[in-house]
Amino acid sequence: MHKDFPSRILFHPSIRPIHHTFGPLATRAQLLQAFLLQFQPWKWHDGKELQELKEELARLFPAGQVSLFDTGRGALLALLRALELAEGDEVILQGFTCAVVPNAIIAAGGKPVYVDIHQKTLALDPALVRAAVTRRTRAIICQHTFGIPADTSALRLICNEKDIALIEDCAHVIPDGENGKIGMHGDAILLSFGRDKAVSGVSGGAIVTRHALIAKRLCEMEARALRRSSWHILNLVGYPLRYACAKMMWPLRLAKAYLHGLRLLRLLPPVLRKQEKAGRAETELFRMPNACAILTLEQLRSLTTINAHRRSIAQLYGAVAQQEHWESPKGALLSPALQKFPLFVKNAESVRQKLKSRQIYLDDGWCGAVVNPRTVNERAVGYCAGSCPNAEDVSQRILTLPTHPTMTRKQAETLLDVLGKMLHTTGT
Fold first, then answer.
1. N or C: which end of the chain has fewer CB within 10 A?
2. Is the pLDDT of residue 268 over 90?
């Protein structure tokens, strides 16, 4: 182990769980905002923060015009509709993606065309993209997986040659400084502010576009978008608080029952609905609630701190991975802020299950399938088994380590200690 790594640390059941999904961005600042918002219903639907959020995003992604929607998937659907896809028009996306991306393509009237990834970046392989472009191709959706920069320069050249749109999916990463790749080459940038993204408003999404006509169409769709109910917004606002309570209950072994009860009462909105797993997206567009803009804005204004924390944790993982000769995508070293640190291991699912018995929960919904989560009907979202062999291989070997703002360095050291002993025992 690394010389500064305390191998004596052992996991104790009274420690809160190590995880990807239990309110990962519910920081103290967000908890305070969420608590206050419960008693400020006049701020839930509309407010100045929506405009302030647009201004902040325009600052981060210069020369872009911003439109806001209630989810990232809704924002993507709006963008694809703004492109006015005709029946049979193709949109290229990568294998190893989330179901909401092909769902949005299908809902907009397009056809998803899956192209394999490069294992160095976990993103589209430009050479394969070039071969997949046809006269019906209208757009390429380029995903910066876990914050690892995709080769947008090569994709930009292809799009320029073929006169097609490049959409950068930046749901996993928002750079806090100068970056020559992420968000710089796309005709449009997709952002999501879901519970486990680069920053979180619990819900929310945005499109930043540099094309006046597309921006005009998006602005019109945003103006016509429906309002979510007050109950729906209150439920979103309560999400960070409920998970904070669950973490406090964890040492008493009451948290799982508490969370199960909340799900039964529909007080924990699902990340993906049953119909979405079957390839059917919600077709109505909804506007972003001001309450979600308030939560997102607070985290965007703390982006440097959040990203610095992610970099610190990722550097710790990277140092140990290098010393222990654990396999990791080489492109991860180029990320401005990893949303999670990826490793390739044998029997990844078995490792996750063993870690779960130690209160370490690493199933983040990005494992076991090319179109995630693994409960998705891949045929329904247009994926043909065997067409993306690299993505299929990655999906079976991927193990991701948390870097989120509520993950402490001590927890990261504990995780590395437990994982190191486990991988040494299994010979991975």
1. N
2. no
